[in-house]
Specification:
The chain has helices at 14-27, 40-47, 51-63, 89-105, 110-129, and strands at residues 67-70, 74-77. It is mainly alpha-helical. The protein has a two-stranded antiparallel ribbon with strand order 1-2. One of its GO terms (molecular function) is DNA-binding transcription factor activity.
Amino acid sequence: MIRFHLDGRSGVSPYMQLKQQVRHALRLGLLREGDQLPTVKDVVAQLAINPNTVLKAYRELEHDGLIAARPGLGTFVTRTLTDTSLSAHAPLRRELERWMAKARSAGLDDESIEALFMTTFRAGAQEDIA
């Protein structure tokens, strides 16, 4: 089961963070069709947030056709977002972990690593468009 977390410094609204975390888990195969999401009550207790925040995230995911609420049973994944073989993820993850270790040993903190990664990612995406 997915365990949510919130980053108050991200500038991204809490409901959107929850939504992104579910989408990432679906894309990486961490959540599969039929898996149950935590109840709204459990997420509220874990994160100390308003129930409407969780409900909004779940409602939008349901609108996207990714999850479905079953009254009295819970909320379940109805489809995934995996677009490549999951076997490709493990070696790429190990390579990324090695890169992050190098970045840390070079003295970069988490925020600097994230900034470097995101600017490089965005620049690569722009090159793909051009």
